[in-house]
Amino acid sequence: MRARTVFIMLLVLIFLVAFGPALVALISQTIAELAFGCQVDLNRVIPCIIDKDDGQTFYDLGFLIWYSYLSIPTGGVLFAIWLVAATTAFIVRRRSAPAKT
Question: Taking the model in full, what pTM does it have?
Fold first, then answer.
């Protein structure tokens, strides 16, 4: 596997770690409100009848937004490590490549 592919895959994983909880919360709230006409509130569980009462499920998924306080700084640190590794790999590759004349 090429180094470029590995670094792109790692960057996608870092993005998912950093913004995953917020994306899940926003997507679940959007689905609840637009697709089913349910209201989502983080202060209380509001009943939402789809096939059963799914209000608690949407409340729990919406509550994931609070994990962003941990995941976004973690993603920032992982991105900084990724940036140093990618820059180092780029410099090593440029120096070891044969000179074109």
Answer: 0.79
